[in-house]
């Protein structure tokens, strides 16, 4: 009789533990989906629909880059970057390729100055940016890809427009990855 009670207790504890383990894994995926938004779907697709592999990758990104503190920009730096972006947009009419090259370099410089990984590793930089600016990092990828690919003028124009969203978020100083829903607040100006 005592053995039967012990076996029933062990089975009950195992069932409860399994329930909470599965529930926790499910909620973790929802948390990552909420935090990364479209980036979550992009990573799942890149892993051939394997959500567990995608969630491992995204979880690794959060562990590596989640504690990164974005450095503030001086007003002079903001003005310098804003002027560079305006020049890149104006250059688009004459040379879309050169405009995207400038926008790509500008986003690399701006993200580096804000404290994101520097160097030549585009993927590491975009991984870090995706943790803090998931809603906008795809625009940066589109600029980088259109610059190096066979994109037509319309695709390049759309890439520049999408990349502007990350530029604005970095320039404003918002950290959208930490604010679920990928929105950033700009002090004194509300939500942008």
Please give a structural write-up.
The C terminus is likely disordered. Helix content is 73%, strand content 2%. A hairpin with a 3-residue loop joins strand 1 and strand 2. It folds into 2 domains: 64 residues; 117 residues, no CATH class. The relative contact order is 0.11. Strands 1-2 form a two-stranded antiparallel ribbon. By secondary structure, it is an all-alpha fold. The protein starts with a helix and ends with a strand. Helix 2 crosses helix 3, helix 5 packs across helix 7 and helix 7 packs antiparallel against helix 8. It has 8 helices and 2 strands; from the N terminus they run H-H-H-H-H-H-H-H-E-E.
Keywords:
192 residues, mainly alpha, 2 domains, two-stranded antiparallel ribbon, 2 strands, elongated, disordered C terminus
- In percent, how much strand structure appears in the residues? under 5%
Q: Main beta sheet, described?
A: 2 strands, antiparallel
Alpha-beta classification: mainly alpha
Helix and strand succession? HHHHHHHHEE
Number of domains: 2
Count the DSSP helices: 8
Shape: elongated
Rounded average pLDDT: 83
Give the spatial strand order of the biggest sheet: 1-2
The total beta strand count reads 2
Spatial extent as radius of gyration: 22 Å
Please mark out the parts with pLDDT under 50 across 5 or more consecutive residues, or reply none: 20-27, 174-192
Percent helix: over 70%
What is the rounded distance between the termini? 67 Å
